[in-house]
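Choline kinase
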Amino acid sequence: MTTTALDRIRALPLWTGKVDPQPLAGGITNSNFMVEDGGARFVVRLGEDIPAHNVMRFNERAAALAAERAGVSPALRHFEPGLIVIDYIEARTFTEQDVRDHLPRVAELVHRAHREVTREIRGPALAFWTFHILRSYVHALRNRAHRLAGDLPRYAAVAERLEATLGPTEIVFGHNDLLPGNFLDDGERLWLIDWDYGGFNTPLFDLGGLASNNGFSPAQRDELLAIYYGRAPDDRLRLRLQAMLVASLLREALWSMVSESESRIDFDYRAYTAENLARFERAHAEFEAMAG
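Structure:
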């Protein structure tokens, strides 16, 4: 991070005195810092619009404010283009194992977020229709002559089959990036953070992403569906969830392929691409076995 960026954080008008921003690890879309001021702590997230990934900061602001009003995310204290400040939560960041161990709490939080953030969103807000995102990535990677461009027609065909399998769906304002690190446990309750990919989508994309990002077993997927929908899943619902689980892994892989050339953050995107493509292939094989 450049001295200019640090100076920008220090010069923000909300501080009551001199501050010393400290970097936080873990971000692969934004650069994050913790700031202490006036006996309180805050997280400062730096990141410009990323149209290639459907990330627009006006939309993140709207989502963060809605999530704050819904009581699922910490308060937003300051926003300006390329920078957002939220309250720091003294909490444990979840791992994949934590998400699995606390599945009922996590599922209930996601259900609450879908219901309440959808009600609280105000003004212009983006859609995050999974299959539009996938088509956009395929076109972008083809135009850039990506090193894996020869595989793109197959990925596009798989996406079309997944979209047909999903069929008609309800729409909610989803989080769309349910990595374990976006769940915080303060000892009393769970929080859901980082709404830069928020947008209107099928709830099954968040549920599929939750299952894929956190290594859910078939039994845990059934438990997730039962908690979310209030009934035991049937084979049709299981297949639709599996379709969106595959779509979430394909989206993550294509996201990483685009990020190989798009991002300036120090992260091994090639390795991340390979990891997610391997997981996608395993999940896709399971989907085809379920679909018959």
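The mean pLDDT is 96.
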